[in-house]
Amino acid sequence: MRQRLADLRTGLPVLRLLVRRDVKVRYADSVLGWLWSFLDPLLMSLVFYLVFTVIFRRDVGEDPYILFLLTGLLAWNWTASSLADAPRALTKDKQLVGAVRLPREVWALRTVCSRGTEYLFALPVVVLFAVVFTHPPSLYVLALPLAFGIQAVLLVGLSLLLSPVGVLVTDSTNIVALVVRLGFYGSPVFYGLADVPEAVRPFYALNPMVGIIDLYRAAWFPEAFIGWGPVLTSAVIALAVLVVGSAVFARLERPALKEL
Amino acid sequence: MSAPGAVRRPIPPGAPAIVVDGLGIRFNRHRRRKIFLRELLSRGEDTTPDRGRFWPLRDVSFTVAPGEAVGVVGVNGSGKSTLLKLIAGVLLPDEGSVAVNGGVAPLIEITGGFVNELTGRENIRIVAALHGLSRSQLAERFDQIVDFSGVGDFLDTPFRHYSSGMRVRLAFSVMAHLDEPILLVDEVLAVGDKAFRARCHDKIDELLASGRTMFLVSHSDADLKRFCTRALLLERGGLVLDGPVLDVIERYTRGA
Q1: What domain count does chain B have?
Q2: pTM to 2 decimals?
Q3: Range list of β-strands (E), chain B
């Protein structure tokens, strides 16, 4: 374990490089470039906004609703896109994986970091809406790095778990896609944790995204923050996922490399 | 073992560059999903005989001194490329060990790190750094790399517009300008036009003269004789002969 961590340190400069390359490649041939990283969630938020303010009478979430939506949707998108990439983390660049001697964990970390960078690029749009609606942040803004950190640990764990499995079991891509689609409704994205019946909350909070999104939102909607319980649950689950993910990765790395 | 980017210890005089000891790797003919469950649930080595398994390489041991140029000979499927990948550290052995003293420049699938969407210039920067070349080292060598590859005007063109020959030329050029003390060359000499091949040969001569250790997989007797002093003959995954290159080629030709 210690050896693996030491090896991983040597892979960090390469990781930074791969992430930079991903970002470059993503926008190399597009006209709107990095605008896409927030255009996409912005349009999605507009759709939800229209559906829930014009068609339905909304009684969930907080005001301004578009800000409420965006904080949840951007965080959720990081998870969704990282998970979608994870089973392909080793196969997508298999020639490179087969030609460069690197700690293989780098490939799993890379998808999370690339998508995380995209998430950070998109965050200004949240600030923009906060300014437009003159909605000042609360003190919980200081806890944002914590929410980001818990989410990063969770995603790294899932990515370590899924990247070798994705090589060996091709249906993992479909399974992950399904889980992500369901997870969208099972996470407080277009509604808030406060809208979930109190009796169900402890079970609901077993989805680690619940505590994470609730903490992100506390920065703008402190009155709707349920408390630190769900956050703690998320942190514990994220760490457990990281441990399991590392163990599975260590065990399946060898056979996965042979199957590339 | 060192990874790219690690501090490379200078090779102490007399210490071997590569030590391969009882090396073996097991492949599996089963469906991948079966491998998945088996590997996930089994702890350690499972020794039950199994018809679905085979060993592309087994019980291979040898030592290479720094500065040696070693050829690897054998029919298709005898385990040559697998051996190279194990030395490069991109496959992990199931038995035995590989110890490599210093970094490795693998000329295996050399165009692997290049992306179609980016230009030649961007690709050179990224691939060189992936293989552990620092920014300042690259700045020094950038012009040499470009000159050697002969891509000229295409430097700022996306890689996807390159001809396959140009791709290989650029990739070879980057790999040949790395600092790694050990070169692993897998058949790349067979591509490119005549003029470029001659330049590749000169470049390899130059690298060998500067004390690099080289491992060359080739089906060309001429290349083997030109660069190597020693050769390994692989047969069905086993090392059957390790000796002077002429003896090995003779034995191989006789056997084939």
Answers
A1: 1
A2: 0.87
A3: 18-28, 53-64, 69-73, 95-100, 104-107, 182-186, 213-217, 230-235, 238-244
